[in-house]
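Fold sample X.
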Amino acid sequence: MNRSIIQPLVVKDFEIMKTPVLCWWAPGLLAAVLPWLFDGWRVFLASLILSVSAMAGAGFHSVMQTVVEERREKTLPFIMSLPITVREYTSAKLIANLTIFGVVWVTLSATSLVVAVATADSPLAKGAIPFITIVLVGILLAYTIVLATSLVGESIGLAITAIVVANIATQIFLWWVVSLDGIRSTIEGSVAVWSSTAFTIIGGQLLAVLVLLWLTFVLQARKRDFI
């Protein structure tokens, strides 16, 4: 794999997305620290919803701008006319997008979890930590679905469909998760209980992310036409 080809493509996407991502990340970080500034479980829930929305917004914006727009603006055929392989192009897109989203996801997730641990007067925050972790990993999985679909499908219609489906599926999935005894029985407790149910769900989510990334490489490798 030619790293000298991959690096400029990654840097290009970083340059395109640095300002938009900052515009998503900064409000998300502010939302994540709200429970430190204001008491109450309603503030805590609003904080989590807003920070999760900022993560999703940054990720989906990056995919639409650096993947879908390249196809729509006819930039992709030009890139593929350069001395670059499909594997190198796919690697560049995955590295750029996963890094962009990863920085936002890791920092906002860590902040939300630290706030949940440090908010001493909110028992809900403590007992809900395993569920919050499932929510945060669910956002990573939803983003990976959209990224994989956009790369393989190269269509704005498919990308939008993936965003809608991932959003709805994530909400249904979380409603199902919160109904499970291993989650429901501890979510309102004063301490975080890491049950086998929670570990199994999180492990399954992370495995699904890895499988989707692998499938993206496999399906991309079969392409011969980028016009």
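Fold sample Y, listed below.
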Amino acid sequence: MKEKIGIIGSGVVGQTLGKSFLKSGYEVKVGSRNPEKLKEWLDNVDNSNASIGTFEETASFADIIVIAVHGVDATHAIDLAGKDNFTGKIVIDVTNPLSEQKAGPPKLASTQENPLGKQIQDYIPDAKVVKAFNIVNCFIMVNPILEEGSPDMFIAGNDEGAKQWANDLILSWGWNACYDLGGIENSYWLEAFAMLWVVYGFKNNQWTHAFKLLHR
């Protein structure tokens, strides 16, 4: 039996990932500070394996937790979900620490010494945090078949078993390859990579691009 997936975050990313996990045969609960806002999503999913709830209900329900809130709100969302509900669980961090600006692209609100992925791992030390999926638009996180081919995904985390689970999911969702960058401290490079994605998007008004690692 597949794991139960709990998604902390009811925005476009959370709702889109929720549908993707359902299509992959998982039981899914999407959490929100205000679950009522998810009733339309639930009605349109047409799947008996879908449910909605509060952050706390979602984290308690799940075997695997996906954090899909604004990066700057991540630790607050964890507080609302109950830190104990993360103990021993794989946590997929798809967030980016972006500081919105009055004009132009946002700025990166993390540093190499203290990336958001590491902040989340330090905040829930008994969880197994894997940074993944943060370098693309949520609409191409699954089946990312682009004109030039299938792109690659990159991950970082401390737990090898958790990274293997993420790797298997990524490949099952149609990615060409999944590259492990090492420990969660290297989530900084994924967060910086996301800024490259954002800056290119603002410059070219193009939001369905992705990356590929080429070898010789």
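Sample Y note: Residues 152 and 214 are 10 Å apart (CA to CA).
Also: The beta strands are 4-8, 27-31, 50-53, 64-67, 90-93, 98-99, 107-108, 128-131, 152-157, 177-180.
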